[in-house]
Design a protein that fits this description.
The protein is an alpha+beta fold. It is built from 10 helices and 12 strands. The protein has 2 domains: about 1-35; about 40-355, 4-Layer Sandwich (Glutamine Phosphoribosylpyrophosphate, subunit 1, domain 1), CATH 3.60.20. The protein has helices at about 1-35, 60-80, 85-100, 145-155, 160-170, 185-205, 210-220, 275-285, 285-295, 300-315, and strands at about 40-50, 120-125, 130-135, 160, 225-230, 235-240, 260-265, 270-275, 320-325, 330-335, 340-345, 350-355. The structure holds aspartic acid.
Length: about 350
């Protein structure tokens, strides 16, 4: 009798557990089917925004930029396709552009007023919201790698100048002679700006600042950046730059600043910025895009458009962003004449563009 009672009780319990499993199982299945995945993995890059006009680029130069953008993005795309992490895709893709003299990052970085090259970079992991950055470094071959290493191998987020170099050396990263970053083209740009400044100074002291600003405004900025989504749904973003030509007093722009130059959050999106850094810092461009998606439930397109075309433009800032959301939607947004840019989705569709559509 006791035995029968026990069996009925066990049967009832089993039935209860089974119905619970069935209920939650259906719920999970329903939820999964509600998620519309645009792309299982995706990657988007920029090589800087600015007054990039077709009439100023020879067909050879244009082809060289497009080829380098394609080479860079294909490296990251292959990593993602093979199941690699978005972090690896971002670093390896940016390194191709850092090593090219075409872009204002790594080799090819612009010159400071002191005729040196001072590099900035940042990296963010959208899964953990962990981040790393370096600012004002003069001898680290790959600033983006250093930025990621600050994130993985230190308890800090941003290291600067000499200290950052010591850290990089200790972690076994490649250190180069500062002359590695020299390119004649960038050196000549600095001389042109200095000459203009001097002419203005000789004639009208008051106009000096305006002339300096106008020149910077019209410069091709050339920072590089990348955002990637991997097959595990993790987003990473990174940005690397030489800053702005003729910068002085240890000026640091937005590129190494998390929330301005770079941001990534698996719940919303990843962003890399390029443009006039002072405005990007004040507008908190990268974080604002993520925040608009998180709190106002805007789409990636709506958020990037509002931040660049409305908020940044109203402040007087120029530049753009590349961004990608958790579902693999991608967005290019800029208020300048052009932006070197490329994207690739999980089907392998490649877009490489320079000018406005
Ligand atoms: N944002 C960079 C800076 O202000 C420049 C650039 O994007 O080219 O340092």
């Amino acid at each position: 009798m006791f035995c029968l009672k026990l069996n009925i009780k066990t049967m009832k319990q089993t039935l209860y557990i089974l119905s619970l499993l069935l209920f939650f199982g259906c719920k999970t299945e329903k939820k999964a089917s509600e998620i519309i995945k645009q792309n299982e993995f995706a990657i988007i890059i920029h090589g800087g925004a600015g007054t990039i006009l077709k009439k100023n680029l020879t067909p050879e130069k244009e082809a060289a930029y497009k080829a380098k953008l394609e080479e860079a993005i294909r490296i990251g795309h292959t990593i993602l396709k093979n199941g690699g992490t978005s972090g690896d895709a971002v670093v390896k893709t940016i390194q191709v552009m850092e090593e090219s003299p075409l872009f204002n990052a790594g080799k090819g970085a612009v010159f400071t007023n002191d005729e040196t090259n001072e590099l900035d970079a940042s990296f963010m992991d959208g899964k953990t919201l962990n981040a790393g950055a370096v600012a004002g470094v003069k001898d680290i071959k790959s600033p983006i790698e250093a930025a990621r290493t600050v994130m993985t191998d230190s308890e800090h987020v941003m290291l600067s100048g000499k200290g950052a170099s010591i850290f990089a050396k200790e972690k076994g990263l490649e250190i180069v002679d500062p002359s590695y970053f020299y390119t004649e083209r960038r050196f000549k740009s600095l001389q042109r700006i200095k000459d203009k400044e001097k002419t203005e100074l000789d004639h009208d002291e008051d106009k000096k600042v305006a002339f300096y600003d106008a020149d910077i405004k019209n410069a091709k900025f050339g920072t590089v950046g990348c955002v990637a989504l991997d097959k595990n749904g993790n987003i990473s973003a990174g940005t690397s730059t030489g800053g702005m030509t003729n910068k002085r007093w240890g000026r640091i722009g937005d590129s190494p600043i998390i929330g301005s130059g770079t941001y990534a959050n698996n719940l919303t999106c990843g962003v890399s910025s390029t443009g006039w850094g002072e405005y990007f810092i004040r507008a908190q461009v990268a974080y604002d895009i993520s925040a608009q998606m998180e709190y106002q439930h805007k789409s990636l397109k709506e958020a990037t458009k509002d931040v660049i075309q409305n908020k940044l433009t109203k402040l007087g800032g120029t530049g753009g962003v590349v961004a990608l959301d958790k579902n693999g939607n991608m967005s290019f947004e800029f208020n300048t004449a052009g932006m070197y840019r490329a994207s690739m989705n999980d089907k392998g569709t490649l877009i490489v563009k320079i000018y406005k559509d």
